[in-house]
Amino acid sequence: MVDKIEFSRWKNVPEVVKIAEDIGAVADWYLQAASSNKPEDRVQARKIWAQLSDKYWDMLYALVDAQTESFPSVLTFDEQERLFINFGYLNDMITPRNKKFEPLAVLKSISSVGVFPYQAFSDFIAECWAMITGQPIPAPIHGMSTEKRLQGLEGQLTSLQQERDAELRMILSRDNNLSREELVDVLTDLDQYLISATKVSMRVKEYREAKEDVRQSMSQDRFRYNEAEKTMNMQLSIAQKDVIEPLGLPEYEEFMAIHEATKTVARKIVYTAQETEKTQRRAKRITNTCAEFSRQMMRRELKNMLAKKKEYMAVPSKTARCDQSLLNPQDSEPILYQAASALVEEMANLDMDMFGVARIRMYGIPRVIFIPGQGFGTYDWADHTILLPMFPATSVERALAYGLATFRWDSDEDRILKNTYESIKDNKGKSILEMAKSFYKDYFLWITKEKKGYRILPRDTHKTFIHMFAPRKQED
């Protein structure tokens, strides 16, 4: 007989207790069938596992109902509840853990600083409740608030600029083409005017709708940055041609990588800074819709929002053709929020133009929600969220890249990507679904291999991706 399941906060709530008992009974039945050597019992075990998997949602709804009964201003989940909600873990008998699944490590993991807002599934549920009830959106337990992300990104930028400036001083110290005062002016302009120049080049709302004097000032900042960058490039060119001690290509490329990184982080800062208004607008829309609801209707609305998310949470496992259960799989270890989000940011650095699509201009940066279950990442069009399974199929890189690829494909409303991609000879005659699957796979190879210098894709596909992802003018 399996160990008793008990959620300590709700051990006296009849509905939670009943579902826990039901899970235990089905789990007993499953373990008996799974341990049998008879083929028919093994077949039966797979059917019983499907029934047991369905109990995930029964228990989730019961936990939510138990907490919203008192109509709290904020939903909170303890460690035991988060292990269940975010990883599908109940106990080691019903949902045995992979030896690398350390509960303390996953519970303490927090997403890295980045342009995407990251959430665990339990964070998403708490956010939904806050919007329904008109309360301030709580900071995610496993992610960062917009303010902290901005602080982190600004810290990254400062660090990169200091590294870039030190390298440039060292490179240019080899000759006297630029005086010390001129060098200081160049570095000051590169550091001081980067954000303003980035806003102008992206034509953000702040610039487009500013008064004429402010627009002129921002345009002047951009001019100063561009002039400083031209001077920098000219001096680097002179250094490369130096007769005595020429600047080598590896050293030049390393320096330019740091410089380009400053511009990438600057764009992330601008995108993140614009997010607050769009997040507040989204929250207000949901709050206004539910304003006249009774408490019972608000509680029901939360379950409705979770039911809608349930449909998309089945997609990752279907795409990867693996077990569709949201319960913890014994043969897989979960990803840690910190490492996974850092890898997503690394991929985003190689495709920053994704943030210029119309859907982001309208709704903001999509939230990244880590969900229980296995499979490849996907994009929830209805809720503008990227869903990443806690237990990736095949590889972490593929699971995360598929999430970005799905967003790229589904947000291509002007068909810039689709029309180009379908022109590839191998894609002729494919259905839209077949072409999408092909694109996800090719994008994964493009972002993890091709963008790093490895030729993997067929010649025509390689050329097409270069064309599809050629830099385009950024507009907000």
Features:
19 helices; 4-stranded mixed beta sheet; 476 residues; mainly alpha; 5% strand
Detailed description of the structure:
Strand 3 and strand 4 form a beta hairpin. It contains 19 helices and 4 strands. The mean pLDDT is about 95. With about 475 residues, it is mainly alpha-helical.
Summarize the model shown.
The protein is mostly helical. 62% of the residues lie in helices and 5% in strands. It has 19 helices and 4 strands.
Class based on secondary structure composition and strand pairing: mainly alpha
Q: Which percent range describes the beta-strand content?
A: under 5%
Main beta sheet strand tally, sense and closure: 4 strands, mixed
Arithmetic mean of pLDDT: 94
Using only C-alpha atoms, the radius of gyration works out to 26 Å
Bin the helical content: 55-70%
Q: Distance N terminus to C terminus?
A: 59 Å
Shape: globular
Would you identify the regions where 5 or more consecutive residues have pLDDT less than 50?
none
Total strand count, please? 4
How many individual helices? 19
Strands of the widest sheet, in order across it, are 1-2-4-3
Order of helices and strands: HHHHEHHHHHHHHHHHEEEHHHH
